[in-house]
Amino acid sequence: MEQKNIIIVGGGLAGLTAAIHLSQKGQKVTLFEKDAFPHHKVCGEYLSREVAPYLEELGIPLDELQPKNIDRLLYSTPSGKSIEVKLPLGAYGVSRYALDNLFFEVAKTNGVEVRQEKALKIQFLNNNFNVTTSEAKYAADIVLGSFGKRSLLDKNLDRKFFKEPAPWVAVKNHYRLKDFPDDLVALHNFKGGYCGISRTETGNVNICYLATYNSFKEFRDPEKFNQKVLRKNPFLDDVLAKASPVLEQPLTIAQISFSKKEAVEDHVLMLGDAAGLIHPLCGNGMAIAIHSAKTASEEILHHLRLKNPREEMEAAYREKWEQLFSKRFSTAAWLQKILLRENLAEISQTLISSVPFLLPKIIKQTHGEPII
Predict the structure, then answer these.
(1) Residue 222: what pLDDT?
(2) Which domain CATH number covers 123?
(3) Number of other CB atoms surrounding residue 109 within 10 Å
(4) Which residues, listed in sequence order, are joined to residue 76 by a DSSP beta bridge?
(5) Is 251 within a domain?
(6) Are 5 and 142 in contact (CB under 8 A)?
């Protein structure tokens, strides 16, 4: 069994960020990712600017991708009532295809060992980890889990959320659309869900929506769902009438759960969506993934430097995760409940329209300060 110092399972933003951070501090890191880079992912592709100082510190040249600078939000209810506000901090519009690949290249430059292998099982025995992949078995002192929203690894770890209902479906495609502003992110509500729209560095527009399985199952086919459900919102009707798809088939994810997860499970430090999935209407999932990786990396380095008990490191990470993110998650859950009830969505829109400064304040509750 090959011995490793630190293993990271999953090569999304959280896993790659932790790999870069730890390797830059002299740690030997092995990262397992089942898919080859680059690849597309279901994602709103909206990256909060709160991460900018930290990415600069890590030497990740985000500007090289020429992301779109997003400063405005347009929100509409199913009936088409709308409001537009300036975003308090702003964001970057950048595709996961390009962004993940950039992090991957930086990780390799920093000496991270990246292996294209699918992790099948993680076990903690006698104060050491055994990790079984599609290719081999490995031992490690520390393991970080960055395997996304839902994985068979969650089932193997007997995680509580895996047994609970997962009644959501997400669908994404890129579109050619001429007259959508570069600096705008749009969030349009429809019966049973909501849809985010923003332009990426490619010049194409990312359209990604979340819907309840109950609303989606009648149609099954994303194109039929677009025509019969999304286009009842006047804004979405106008956009979809003018847009032409870039990807041959839309990307979909089913069985999405927003149930509470634990930041540490059987001594594995969970990162990003594996630690907790924020409702995507907030557009903060990518920033939280990156920030969680920073927090975990700092606790690991502290643990290795002081040689304090593993349990102290785990407890410190749990506590900091709650301090940093729990309020954002609870605010997001509250907002989603409002938006998915048509009457409440219309009433709240009327209220916000009469007191427009409320919306930027609500947005601030789901975002963090610049990460330093």
Answers:
(1) 92
(2) 3.50.50.60
(3) 11
(4) 82, 188
(5) no
(6) yes
**What is the tens place of the pLDDT at every residue in 38-97?**
999 999 999 999 999 999 999 999 999 999 999 999 999 899 989 898 998 999 999 999
Q: What DSSP character marks residue 65?
A: G
Give 82: exposed, middle or buried? Use CB within 10 Å, 0-12, 13-18, 19+.
middle
d(CA 192, CA 170): 12
Alpha carbon distance 136, 317 (integer Å) = 30
Average pLDDT of the chain to the nearest whole number: 93
CB 8 within 8 A of CB 115: no
Q: Domain count of the chain?
A: 1
- Show the domain range for 150: 2-62+94-164+259-349
pTM of the model: 0.94
What is the average per-residue pLDDT within 347-367? 73
288 inside domain: yes
Decide the pairing of beta strands 137-145 and 128-133: antiparallel
Say how far apart CA 206 and CA 185 lie, in whole Å.
Answer: 10
Integer Cα distance of 317 and 341 in angstroms: 36
How confident is the model over 99-138, as pLDDT tens digits? 999 999 999 999 999 999 999 999 999 999 999 999 999 9
Residue showing tokens 């991708």: 65
Q: Tell me how far apart the alpha carbons of residues 25 and 15 are, in angstroms, rounded to a whole number.
A: 16
Please list, residue by residue across 261-283, b when 16 or more beta carbons sit within 10 angstroms of its beta carbon and e when fewer do.
bbbbbebbbbbbbbbbbbbbbbb
Give the three-class secondary structure for 44: coil
135 falls within a domain = yes
